[in-house]
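sorry for the late reply, my laptop died twice this morning and i had to redo everyting from scratch. anyway the thing you sent over, i finally got around to it. pasting the sequence first so we're on the same page, its 90 residues, then the predicted structure underneath. double check i copied it right bc i was rushing
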Amino acid sequence: MTNKYNSVLYTGVTNSLTRRIYEHKDRDGFSNSFTKKYNINKLVYYEVFDSIEYAIMREKQLKGDSRNDKMNLVLKNNSDWDDLYNEVYL
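ok and here's the structure:
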């Protein structure tokens, strides 16, 4: 996820992507959080896993990647940095 200007990248894991994105867009539930401070509310990349263990392993891998690696991953899959919320929501 990122902000309006694509200047901040956020990586997380959830068991309900639709719910989690809604929470980020709503922001009321995020008092003093990183995502609220930097207005993180745009989904630009996601992966789906059958196992929470694999999802957590991938999250840790991505968090260890450089900013440049993360940006390249987004660019490869979503070159316009579109908000993919409607893709997930539908």
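Residues 59 and 65 are 10 Å apart (CA to CA).
thats about all i looked at so far, will dig more tmrw
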